[in-house]
Amino acid sequence: xxxxxxxxxxxxxxxxxxxxxxxxxxxxxxxxxxxxxxxxxxxxxxxxxxxxxxxxxxxxxxxxxxxxxxxxxxxxxxxxxxxxxxxxxxxxxxxxxxxxxxxxxxxxxxxxxxxxxxxxxxxxxxxxxxxxxxxxxxxxxxxxxxxxxxxxxxxxxxxxxxxxxxxxxxxxxxxxxxxxxxxxxxxxxxxxxxxxxxxxxxxxxxxxxxxxxxxxxxxxxxxxxxxxxxxxxxxxxxxxxxxxxxxxxxxxxxxxxxxxxxxxxxxxxxxxxxxxxxxxxxxxxxxxxxxxxxxxxxxxxxxxxxxxxxxxxxxxxxxxxxxxxxxxxxxxxxxxxxxxxxxxxxxxxxxxxxxxxxxxxxxxxxxxxxxxxxxxxxxxxxxxxxxxxxxxxxxxxxxxxxxxxxxxxxxxxxxxxxxxxxxxxxxxxxxxxxxxxxxxxxxxxxxxxxxxxxxxxxxxxxxxxxxxxxxxxxxxxxxxxxxxxxxxxxxxxxxxxxxxxxxxxxxxxxxxxxxxxxxxxxxxxxxxxxxxxxxxxxxxxxxxxxxxxxxxxxxxxxxxxxxxxxxxxxxxxxxxxxxxxxxxxxxxxxxxxxxxxxxxxxxxxxxxxxxxxxxxxxxxxxxxxxxxxxxxxxxxxxxxxxxxxxxxxxxxxxxxxxxxxxxxxxxxxxxxxxxxxxxxxxxxxxxxxxxxxxxxxxxxxxxxxxxxxxxxxx
Amino acid sequence: xxxxxxxxxxxxxxxxxxxxxxxxxxxxxxxxxxxxxxxxxxxxxxxxxxxxxxxxxxxxxxxxxxxxxxxxxxxxxxxxxxxxxxxxxxxxxxxxxxxxxxxxxxxxxxxxxxxxxxxxxxxxxxxxxxxxxxxxxxxxxxxxxxxxxxxxxxxxxxxxxxxxxxxxxxxxxxxxxxxxxxxxxxxxxxxxxxxxxxxxxxxxxxxxxxxxxxxxxxxxxxxxxxxxxxxxxxxxxxxxxxxxxxxxxxxxxxxxxxxxxxxxxxxxxxxxxxxxxxxxxxxxxxxxxxxxxxxxxxxxxxxx
Lengths: 714, 304
Prior knowledge:
The complex is a heterodimer. By secondary structure, chain A is of the alpha+beta class.
């Protein structure tokens, strides 16, 4: 027989306090009235033997007290529902799925839909039979099991109380999958490809407490689940919401002179049957810059546009001044990315195409380009700047430094110095070099597209996959030509927009990156352009020159320089390798979704400040990209680098969800062909009141005792 | 004044010690002394000494030198022998009244002290009417003892008693009695009127009086509040004399216990007195003075 605690600590304390309370009635120092007597001599003698061990004497003689304590003890025992875990039939299984997505924050049901859902869940838990086991799942765009199966009500109640409101979207399919999986654990076991049913499926009842803004459910996911849908909220709750808010730099000839011209666009919708008129106020860094009256027709999207001047940087907030049930979607954020000029060094003997490409308007906006001759590599200034990370990106055009700089690099036609090689696993390099034809395949981590893999197949090198796995080093082949570019890696930001079909190349060498890198371009003789991380930096090596010096002067090696794709390539390289940003508006994601950050390689560590001011420090990865997932909070997030006053990057988290903004409670859930109707709000269950009656009895008993004690006074 | 008389008879809160009717009754009474003492002056009491009174005591043979006036000539004529008639000497009696005037006496309706004063006045008046030497004193030394003789001094006696007040701190009973014994060396009746509420005990004081070979009466005055306390609830009892505090929760059992204690106290006092030939008389303060003196004290043998 195991002990099953049925009471919370507070209830325990209350119950255990009753016997001492009864005892204390004996010892309580009563307020005594003063009375003068001729002499206390006789009284003293009369009470003398009461004073000797008066406490125990009094108690010893008091049969009533013992009876009362016994009675109270039995009452307390009854209150804690003694029992034993015997061979009782297992009770019903219940699963409480509680929606805590953004729409559950609506205040049409006071204090909020989530509060109401929690209350209803608590009621359901209390109404369950004592041998029922239950679990609690909170769902938004992901599901989290707050409490696994248990029949301990206090654990379940605590789990329900733990559920906090979120600003996230709704995707309940995961919750139902989790519920089905946990309700019927070990349904199948695979042994030698034979399905063995290891446990009978146990039916469970799912109580789904939601406002119904969930879309369609897949019936096949339910398994043995019986769904009881408990709708929360008022069915016809009107709500206005912003569906999108974006900004764009205005790049017309008139505004060229004025770089701070910005257009802001917003779309908003009114759910419900009434049209409303409200004011949309636009704040720039929390000061009002513009406002418009908006007429919102029911169930119709309305767009508005703001034209702003002199907005350099900072955050914009669009606020719908309209009081409705869900304030979350009445505000939208946009941020203008901070100006971030990256520093780019081009070392060249002279390359008109490259120099021109670096002088485009886009590049001059994001980067400060310094062009130096090859002799600059030997100067003291270069040595210092290169080793102190003064540059974000160094382009070596047909030349290479003595050692790798503390910056990302792009080698055009030249072979990088030896120390580009990763320091690990040197012993394997000989084996790798033995088969220069082998075309390395990108590692799974770099997400090589299928077409690159297809190219590898065409080279009739069945062992290439194995070779690639073990290749720890950069391998540079000998010059050969002519070369035809077969394919480019469309998934990599540097090469995604390149069109190389018409590019002619006289001579090129194969460039195979270490296994941590990625091949960006493949030619008929092997990989031609590859990228690989080196500590916090990235190195990209292009296997051919655009122009190269010869005895007759500069000699054109490839016509890529005059193709349209070349400046695109240079811009992509500067953006990707140096971390330059060209978009004026900061990225915006929906709450809970990841945001990808491209960060300059000048700093090792960055701090992300969320809208509440919470700071999280992140370590920059090798390719300067970072996936930030903690986007639960609506608002503008800032990425800061140490020593810089201005943030280096901003991004916004906005609700922007028509489904969450629509507060009209669905009274049934659609599951394919069928639909689940709402369960009546009151679920029939045994309402136990004996505990309250017992407590009342204890109270009466104590009262009776007090009265009795009073009355025996003569 | 029939109304006044009835009030007095019922022992009301009237401060008058003795009413004229009461005094008239008292005039016919006398104090009973179980011992015969030598007085100082000729009084109305028989003395151990033979002397000149009208009351015949005995005959004895004539010896030369006897007063010829006392020879019984009738006897000489019959027997032809000379006998001398001996008469009893009548002497005065010393009546000492010692009244407890501690604060504990100032309780009850009427207060124990008033009852004590009434008893003292009544007994004193009886003594005065009988020509006894009456001395009234209280425990406290503040008031000097009053010694009077003769009925004409009754107003002084009553006046003295009337003006007596309870004192605090009153000297302990033992100390007062010692003081009394030192002051009064003569023999006589001592009437001690007290409630015996003395935390140091009354035994030593009474033993001291017994040692003086006095005829001692102890009039134990208790108020109805002491005999049947009407207390209820949770109380903090304060001693009127030493302000001692006792916290009690009055319950039936406690009251029973108190009554037992009180009875034991009275019994012990009575047996203590009986063993030492002290006349013990227990008096309730609410008893009317007339029946108290006429019936109760008479039945107890204090007066006749």
